[in-house]
């Protein structure tokens, strides 16, 4: 076959994405031990609190001022998919739902016509480091679904299928299937109004971990209109005639098998693929619509309604040190693995 790599680009702090994906970032923060407020024990002097993205000492406060994370902020017109590999996130939103998730869990939030939420990173270990690693992906909604009701789903770690293969040299590859079918494995369904819920979207989110020297074959996509990007963020790999260095994104052909071969250090990658929505995109901060008029209306609606207001006593609520992984819907119903959280 022809070279399967169409183009490559280095990965920065924010990864370049292709329609229908709007944004992807890989947060890795080596947080220290936590204090009684579940914030960092070390002094925060010298940090630009409220907008700390410098990575001093290997970690960031982001928009948090006592606990790292993102205090209450609005969204409209798209979805966030948050995959937490290490650490915990405390979620609260304007509809009254709340959760603590992490350690392999995924939260999939359809903002739709508007929601306010916060994502805080509680440092629950008081005498040990609190490493955090997560991916946040923004996924666009088509015009017909921009104003749907907000909805979120918890895809618990225990419910995510994993494809484990061993090549002829006994090297292993493991793929976590977050969205899209792979080798007959199907993850729990995404929110009902998501682009991913349309069978013809061919949307997939796969996390790949390859042992040193392992080989694995990505199957063809469902159709020629699908766009597939491989984000190699750890290790190195050979794909076709290309030796991909760490922190490289590669747009791949989708019409045939693509063989990956991990280097001496192994390889770790995220695959995002889908058929594009193909509509105009107007984005301003937390709002994604189809034109400037839609953005102006989003700001006007948020000023007028607060997208339901904020029912929590603080802009950055966190749960106690001993709280485990959980979710509660706006009516107080507890959600456990294999159940979804619906607004």
Folded structure, characterized:
The protein is built from 1 helix and 23 strands. The strands form 4 sheets. Strands 1, 12, 13, 14, 15, 16, 17, 18 and 19 form a 9-stranded antiparallel sheet that branches. The chain has a 6-stranded antiparallel sheet with strand order 2-3-10-5-8-11, with no helix packed on it. Strands 4-9-6-7-22-23 form a 6-stranded antiparallel sheet, with no helix packed on it. It starts with a strand and ends in an 8-residue tail after the last strand. The mean pLDDT is 95. The longest helix is centred in the C-terminal third of the chain and has 14 residues. A hairpin with a 5-residue loop joins strand 22 and strand 23. It is mostly beta strands and 343 residues long.
For the report, how would you describe the main beta sheet? 9 strands, antiparallel
Determine Rg (CA atoms, Å). Answer: 20 Å
Shape: globular
Low-confidence stretches: none
Distance between the termini: 47 Å
Please describe the structure with a list of short key phrases separated by commas or semicolons.
globular; 43% strand; six-stranded antiparallel beta sheet; 343 residues; 1 helix
Write the layout of secondary structure elements.
Blueprint: E1 5-10, E2 14-15, E3 21-31, E4 69-75, E5 78-86, E6 88-93, E7 98-102, E8 106-110, E9 115-120, E10 130-140, E11 151-155, E12 162-166, E13 172-179, E14 204-210, E15 215-218, E16 227-239, E17 242-244, E18 248-252, E19 258-274, E20 282-284, E21 287-289, H1 292-305, E22 326-328, E23 334-335
Antiparallel strand pairs: 1-18, 2-3, 3-10, 4-9, 5-8, 5-10, 6-7, 6-9, 7-22, 8-11, 12-13, 13-14, 14-19, 15-19, 16-17, 16-18, 16-19, 20-21, 22-23
């Amino acid at each position: 076959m022809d070279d399967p790599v169409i183009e490559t680009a280095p990965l920065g702090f924010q990864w370049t994405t292709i329609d229908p994906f709007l944004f992807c970032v890989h947060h890795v923060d080596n947080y220290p031990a936590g204090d009684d407020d579940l914030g960092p024990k070390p002094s925060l002097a010298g940090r630009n609190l409220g907008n700390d993205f410098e990575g001093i000492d290997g970690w960031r406060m982001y928009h948090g001022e006592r606990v790292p994370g993102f205090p209450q902020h609005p969204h409209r017109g798209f979805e966030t998919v948050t995959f937490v590999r290490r650490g915990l996130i405390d979620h609260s939103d304007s509809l009254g739902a709340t959760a603590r998730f992490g350690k392999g869990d995924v939260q999939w939030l359809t903002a739709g016509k508007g929601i306010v939420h916060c994502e805080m990173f509680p440092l629950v270990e008081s005498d040990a480091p609190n490493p955090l690693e997560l991916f946040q992906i923004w996924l666009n909604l088509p015009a017909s679904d921009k104003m749907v009701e907000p909805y979120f789903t918890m895809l618990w770690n225990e419910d995510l299928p994993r494809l484990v293969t061993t090549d002829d040299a006994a090297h292993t590859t493991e793929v976590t299937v977050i969205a899209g079918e792979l080798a007959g494995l199907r993850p729990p369904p995404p929110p009902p109004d998501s682009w991913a819920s349309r069978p013809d979207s061919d949307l997939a989110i796969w996390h790949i971990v390859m042992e040193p020297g392992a080989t694995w074959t990505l199957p063809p996509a469902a159709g020629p209109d699908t766009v597939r990007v491989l984000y190699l963020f750890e290790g190195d790999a050979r794909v076709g005639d290309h030796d991909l260095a760490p922190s490289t994104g590669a747009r791949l052909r989708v019409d045939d098998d693509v063989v990956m071969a991990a280097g001496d250090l192994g390889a770790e990658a995220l695959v995002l693929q889908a058929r594009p929505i193909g509509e105009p995109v107007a984005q301003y901060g937390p709002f994604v619509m189809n034109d400037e008029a839609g953005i102006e209306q989003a700001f006007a609606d948020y000023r007028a309604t607060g997208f339901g207001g904020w029912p929590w006593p603080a802009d950055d609520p966190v749960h106690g040190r001993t709280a485990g992984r959980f979710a509660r819907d706006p009516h107080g119903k507890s959600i456990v693995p294999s159940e979804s959280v619906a607004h």
